[in-house]
Amino acid sequence: MSNSLELLVSAQHAAMESDSIADLMTVVEPTRKSNKIKEYRKISTWENYYLPSAICSVGKKLGAGRGGGFKFHFYSHITGDSFAHMYAADKGNPNKVDCSCGITNSFFMPHVVKKAYASFGYDCIYISNSQIKKDFRAVMNAIKASIDKDIPVLAWGIGNVTTTNGRKQNYHNPLPVGCLIGGYDENDVLYINLYCNKDDPHSLPEGTIDEFGYTAIKNGLDTTNGLFFVGAKLDNIDMRQVHQDVIYSIPTFLTLPVFESYMGGKYAFGKAAFDVWADTLETDEFWVGKTDKELGNIRWDLHNSPYCSLCTTHAHNFMVETVKNYPDLIIAAKLLPLYERIGKYKQLIWDELHEGFEPSFMKLRHPKFRGLLAEILREIGETCADILNVFEAEKNPSVKIRKPLDFDEMKNRAVEMKNFCIELK
Description:
Layout: H1 4-13, E1 35-36, H2 50-61, H3 72-79, E2 86-88, H4 103-106, H5 110-119, E3 122-128, H6 129-134, H7 136-148, E4 153-158, E5 161-165, E6 168-172, E7 175-184, E8 190-193, E9 215-217, E10 226-233, H8 239-254, E11 259-260, E12 266-269, H9 271-282, H10 292-312, H11 315-325, H12 330-354, H13 361-365, H14 367-395, H15 407-424
Antiparallel strand pairs: 1-7, 2-12, 3-10, 4-7, 4-10, 5-6, 7-8, 8-9, 11-12
């Protein structure tokens, strides 16, 4: 992940350098007029980090993870979604920036897709939007050739997509999530597997998803952020090195400066994100005196969205796997209890404070409830700082690791708060 910060920053406001169209090798006219990949792993809404979900689908198609390995979360570690905790940079999230779907939903980073493809043994060819426009016919032929080989093409965002939220329709150009191109017809209509489905509140319009999970999209390549094709097979993939690279990318994601997504809206990361989140919860003006309807309109942006992302992370599991398979990676053993702590706190919020995914409006109105919730979030933020100190201690052994709050005491307070809220009813 060397220079990953520079790559991340530059990718937001300028086109990342595209691979050559010649790298696609097969750009001849297709022999078929239409085709669809019928058997493939569809993107799952519950996985929430949609780009890693799409990457996982490509990997499964190529045989990665047979025997149960290389699941969705594995790729979310490589992309940084599991490690780059996010919140709006401004208290109260006035611009309604979304944090729920991880860093790859809001920040464009082609280099992490290349690393993910390499982990399942293949080169990855990135074709930028400007390259698509320059060589549209060659790119379209390459898409069709890949589909004819039964390999989907990953798109980071696809244009000309309409979703519905109740009666309201929303137009996306592009829809900023990873998706799979798995079919085509003679008129250059592409069949896309998107994360939206009939059970999602931001669903695709009724009747637009076919029996294979595809939605027909016209002119979707006009505004896609970029396409990712499977390249040549790589030899001798060193999975220990993959795990090591993931671990040493963590400081980059936890120390990203406040900056703006290519979609607009500024984000804070790591401890800074948890501090702004806690500040927002502790500010009565956002919560007190609001009607249920008003709280329903802001609860997602101010609290549930970042909590959704926090719930999706499985960094603890990654450290467990690394310690088990590569015990010589000592730093993983040092990080394991810290990520275990984060996992325990996110579950404590679910079990005792929220009592599920969403806290009630009654709870959000009460300063005592929000205060304890903010205290727990600040402790998670401090744990992010502890994680950074583990890396710093490798260079400077005099660095001391903070003594954390007593989890059992915090759990007791959370149980008391739960009982207090029951009495409030």
